[in-house]
Amino acid sequence: MQTPEIPQDEKLRLSTLRSLGVLDTPQEDRFDRVTRMAKRMFRVPIALVSLVDENRQWFKSCDGLSVRETPRDVSFCGHAILGEDIFLIPDALLDVRFADNPIVVNAPHVRFYAGCPLRAPNGTKIGTLCVIDHTPREFDEHDAAALRDLAAMVEDELAAFQLAVTDELTRISNRRGFLHLARYSLDFCRRQGTTASLAFLDLDKFKPINDVFGHAEGDRALTVFAELMVQSFRSSDVFARLGGDEFVVLLTNANRQQAENVIASFAERLRARNAADQRGYDLAFSCGVVAFDPGSPCSIDALLAQGDALMYGIKAAKKSALVH
After folding, report:
1. Count of structural domains within the chain
2. Which of 89, 135, 200, 246 is packed most tightly, with the most Cβ within 10 A?
């Protein structure tokens, strides 16, 4: 058996997949509708919307299978995402790469496979729409065109899914997207015994920016702040605009002191951006940093509440110092 190779853009690919917020969500008719169409159109027993995660392929829609995921190392879809077009196996028993594959030899007894790569809005290949049969079969160009059309429908739904977890103004994750990604990250930290820290950020004196310079400039200020977050934090960190002028960062593999050092560096970059932009006002923020202990884990909601409370205490102290 030949296991699938790892794509060259694997880090970006996995980051993109997880940012969609679609992994481990319930089945939905908008995706199931496509697999039903594929199953009927090609007269096959199995049709899947398969998303290739780090160590598994997870099925957003599965018509004809009773499982929701299988290991990546035995997957046909892991091979399919390496190419630009449909990955076709007319008869797996005659292909040395798959003849002894467990899902060929045993249930679900894959003999025929055709998988069209699914691309996220940024172009990375995150999975496939695939059709599977228990017997060998042919697949001509008319079939290929039909499968590509159905795959395009899935890509449209995935793009819509991304819009639901992305902040429309700043183009970083919104609260919904953050909660999904953060839960995924904290589960990983808990399993691996790895620490993490959450930083809850709130812009200082944001209302006067809107009042004096107008709401369009207020939107620009939020966008600049988000752009700097993208430039400053690691790809493994999860950050978002929670709403209004509130932002958050979940830093994995970082204790509280390390996270505070990262936030201090971010503040320095923000001061440098203020000096360069000369907007007539400076962007600044208050921040509460709390640690996640994998040995005594708490929920992301609890971490947000702790960070929020700590941040507001710091902001109140600033206001009090100005008064006195």
Report:
1. 2
2. 200
